[in-house]
Amino acid sequence: MYLTIKETAEYLLVPEAAVKSLIQQKKIRALFDGSEYLIYKEQFNTHLKQVEKYKQLIEEILNEPIPESIDVKDED
């Protein structure tokens, strides 16, 4: 499925200018059909899956309980 720049920006939750910039930097693959750029949606799946994994990992770390008895010795 191909998306326009506007649809891609909405899908990625970024401004349209950012999508245009990424296309110019060749970080997003796009086709120019003569009037507008078309971006293949599936190229973002791997990246979005990786972002979700990192979010889950961070959430697990933040939700890990702090031990009640911390054995800290004051050696003054």
Automatic annotation (TrEMBL):
Superkingdom field: Bacteria
Every Helix-turn-helix domain range: 2-50
Claim: DNA-binding is one of the keywords in the record: yes
GO function terms (MF aspect): DNA binding
Keyword line: DNA-binding
Keyword DNA-binding annotated: yes
Name of one Pfam family that matches: HTH_17
NCBIfam families in the cross-refs: excise
Identification of the protein by name: Excisionase family DNA-binding protein
